[in-house]
């Protein structure tokens, strides 16, 4: 039996879905959120080491990847970081800036989920967890008939906020992409983003004993570059610099690291040669690198000898290699550990102002399911809030 008790049905109780729901609810719309997992906001809860990097004060469209780099501009301009910060402050949630505009809760990411649910409740939004969507039909006169594990109802507007494929252990599925295709939307190829890189063969062997070593680098792929920490893992490379560049890297693309981005490496090596002619190269490199890494450099890549024995050409050659260090990655760790899914619902089929479908009246797509992916550092949450706000303002 169909019960027309809902104006807006939001599929997905994550960041974008909850924000869309509370925005629509504030307008007096009768809103229901259905979440297939047993609780809302699971990715929010695990983000930022449990403290939720909920936005970035420096958010601009340049911090996002999309086949259409202009698409995100409208939503981001109309709901900015300061708007979300105002809500956080109104709920008395203490926060701090960690680095590079990244804002975190002082205490726990649970506070952000509690805030969103409280705002939903205040706006009269009904939230049902452990509720799966079984089928959706668009109706001839407009609206949708939605069958769920908790019954069937007719709704006027339908918002798809199902997320991407990243971190399937949190319940991620491709359901949103299936819905998009069902309603005539193109879905661009997806792949894991903000994800550790894997090494294999001799490339892995060279780093195998260095797991746990971390230091700052500048990672470069094409025109993209990121300066931050790199972490050597048992399977390859991770850390913020690697996660960032992973969204730009694909097999076959050249990936280079500047291992000492803060230094003029050649000038530094020549200065150390003059100051410490008897010191071995591994000892000098240990002044700039973790000792295990410096030693490995001289075991695998550079001949280790007293600085005075290096010729006029050798030290500049070492400097050039340290500044343009090639990484031959075999792949990534995939969706299992990826923080975001690249690709998704093609923005050509959506309104950039409202996230509305250009094909089906009353249908909206928000958050990670759309082909808009942010950098590491709170940008993806800001996209969730902004796109959710855009759709919730009109749905």
Question: Which structural class best describes the helix and strand composition?
Answer: alpha+beta
Distance between the termini: 24 Å
Strand content: 15-25%
The share of residues in helices is 25-40%
Strand tally: 21
Mean of residue pLDDT values: 97
The global form is: elongated
> Please, how many helices?
13
Main sheet record? 7 strands, mixed
Radius of gyration: 25 Å
In short:
The chain has 395 residues and is an alpha+beta fold. It has helices at 15-26, 42-46, 73-78, 81-90, 110-122, 175-182, 201-207, 240-246, 265-275, 281-285, 291-301, 314-323, 379-392, and strands spanning 6-11, 31-34, 53-56, 64-65, 95-97, 102-105, 126-128, 133-138, 144-148, 151-160, 187-193, 197-198, 214-221, 224-232, 236-238, 256-258, 325-326, 331-332, 340-345, 363-365, 373-374.
What would the keywords be for this entry?
395 residues, elongated, alpha+beta, 13 helices, seven-stranded mixed sheet
How would you describe this protein?
The structure is a single chain. This protein is an alpha+beta fold and 395 residues long. It is built from 13 helices and 21 strands. The chain has helices at residues 15-26, 42-46, 73-78, 81-90, 110-122, 175-182, 201-207, 240-246, 265-275, 281-285, 291-301, 314-323, 379-392; strands at 6-11, 31-34, 53-56, 64-65, 95-97, 102-105, 126-128, 133-138, 144-148, 151-160, 187-193, 197-198, 214-221, 224-232, 236-238, 256-258, 325-326, 331-332, 340-345, 363-365, 373-374. Strands 1, 2, 7, 8, 9, 10 and 20 form a seven-stranded mixed beta sheet that branches. A seven-stranded antiparallel beta sheet has the order 17-16-13-14-15-12-18. A three-stranded antiparallel beta sheet has the order 3-6-5. The chain starts with 5 loop residues before the first strand and ends with a helix. 45% of the residues are buried. The mean pLDDT is 97.
